[in-house]
Backbone:
């Protein structure tokens, strides 16, 4: 099966999740740890339904999957910490760009995941397209500080997590690797509810303070649903090819954010995009989208 349509849909869902994350992190969920808890627990609960469909225990696969689950949790934590400290318009592109670069570097050095010349060209075209697409968002705002360290660390941890997940898939099968990695992530955050400080952070959000189906709670549930779907599809795409190629498709989530913003009223558009859509900026985004399309075309050959 071709990973391309799966990865494109996955990052499209990720774009919708990013829009909701931006709203919730600014207005409703002050603690990044809260988000990591809900993401990990939802992942653990969902994979329980997959256990009857192919769980085959293998020590080597389990080890890789456990490492992936641990690294994934810390990757999300550093990502949301960086997102809380600064603008989403800076954090998401930097983390998204660092992730595939680290994946390519680590995968080729330690795991022998070498891309063909055509794949390598497509990889860099996809990265270039994403950089051009988001350039006006971060170019004048990016600073060398603690936030930048968190962003780079998050990209590194995500890369390492996906590489370990790929090895888990290769060592056993997709379902086994996914189940063990998500169970690990869930069990890792479960002890947080037994500590007063972290318990108060986790259970002080709108899901516990207000009616279950108020606007914020509904948004969070929708966001987590799209996020879970995106994570599942990205994991499945990783099971089909090298993680570097899958992660290089991250620019498509910004196309979704841009398209979403274009349908919003003008007063809400700037809040979502963190920029004004001048003719020059729109031209830049069209060029970026063109490079993304060219990269996808080369991968489909």
Residues:
């Amino acid at each position: 099966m071709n990973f391309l349509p799966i990865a494109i849909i996955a990052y499209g869902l990720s774009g919708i999740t990013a829009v909701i994350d931006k709203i919730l992190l600014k207005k409703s969920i002050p603690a990044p740890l809260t988000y990591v808890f809900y993401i990990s627990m939802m992942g653990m609960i969902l994979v329980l339904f997959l256990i009857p469909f192919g769980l085959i225990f293998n020590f080597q696969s389990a080890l890789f999957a456990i490492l992936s689950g641990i690294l994934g949790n810390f990757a999300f934590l550093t990502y949301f910490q960086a997102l809380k400290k600064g603008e989403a318009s800076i954090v998401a592109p930097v983390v998204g760009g660092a992730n595939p670069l680290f994946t390519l570097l680590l995968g080729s050095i330690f795991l022998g995941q070498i891309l063909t010349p055509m794949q390598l060209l497509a990889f860099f075209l996809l990265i270039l397209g994403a950089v051009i697409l988001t350039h006006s968002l971060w170019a004048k705002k990016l600073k060398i500080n603690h936030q930048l360290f968190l962003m780079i660390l998050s990209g590194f941890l995500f890369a390492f997590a996906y590489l370990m997940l790929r090895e888990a898939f290769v060592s056993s099968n997709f379902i086994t690797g996914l189940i063990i990695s998500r169970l690990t992530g869930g069990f890792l955050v479960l002890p947080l509810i037994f500590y007063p400080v972290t318990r108060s952070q986790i259970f002080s959000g709108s899901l516990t303070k207000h009616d279950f189906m108020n606007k914020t709670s509904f948004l969070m549930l929708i966001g987590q649903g799209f996020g879970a779907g995106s994570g599942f599809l990205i994991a499945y795409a990783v099971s089909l090819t090298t993680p570097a190629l899958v992660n290089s498709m991250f620019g498509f989530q910004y196309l979704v954010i841009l398209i979403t913003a274009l349908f919003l009223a003008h007063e809400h558009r700037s809040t979502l995009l963190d920029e004004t859509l001048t003719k020059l900026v729109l031209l830049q985004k069209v060029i970026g989208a063109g490079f993304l399309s060219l990269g996808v075309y080369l991968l489909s050959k």
About this structure: The chain has a mean pLDDT of 83. The chain has one domain: 4-300. Residues 4-300 form one domain.
